[in-house]
């Protein structure tokens, strides 16, 4: 409310001209009555809007004038008219977007809270708190721990500002409401730059070395590999919540990887057997021995019900035969180049070929029931200088 008091001089009297919303309301002789009227309207409005700073409309003013002979005014009519026309407003902070007022807020603090609510649509409260603390203190960015993210820059690309204003109390928005207006009714563009630190694996490398104590084709792991760990710092750029860029800008190894060391044999494979034979299966029992059976001569032993179906070379040698036979089915014959040969029959599958050098214990196939067979088993024979021998004279269960 604007007033222009004037001290009465001798022979003059003071009257008060009332203006509201650019219009002349009238004149009164007692300015106190106008002030009382305005105070009464203010008190009534404050009952409904206790949180707001209320005041008469800024267009309302009272200007004093010194007159020699005041004209007669119907002061009561002027006061009644003013009572009808005078609006009580809330002191406000107008939120503007690209020059257009889109919301009225209680004060500057509410404006700041609105901007924060807007930014919370694009950042977590923790990220925003850290960014605001960095801006306030100027201490720079703290060192990130693995799994943490922090904002390095955040920018509202539209022109948003606030100015002091007056507004109808009913139109005052909360920061949450004003932020919703910004997000829903306007195309706001917010860009955010972030740093993120993540813990990642460092894959171990495999190193192969030659070993003269292992046969060619054999290998063993001398040292198991183990992944290491590293912390990687990423820079990210997001716009309106969508990630546009993500690149690694630094890394530090925290746990060194352990390389895997594999030894590969260089020792020439033996083609001559030792003359000492090993059990050609993995477990199992002798289900049939060499000798007469069902009116015929059984030329070897049968091994059944093993722990594993892999069939193994009983001694060093060279594959002489590998294929199908009417009686033996899938079978392998190994020439041990020392007068001995061994036969492995009824295999389900064969893993070797003619000419392969096999060391004692090498897998040559899988137990089966091919050829003339009554069930899954291995038929095993040993021949010395062309003469069939009883395998049990050379091997035992």
TrEMBL record:
Keywords for this protein: Signal
Task: Report the domain of life of the source organism.
Answer: Bacteria
The record's annotation in Pfam families points to: G5 (PF07501), Peptidase_M23 (PF01551)
Which ranges carry the G5 domain? 188-268
Q: What PROSITE patterns has UniProt attached to this entry? A: G5
Indicate what this protein is called per its UniProt record.
Peptidoglycan DD-metalloendopeptidase family protein
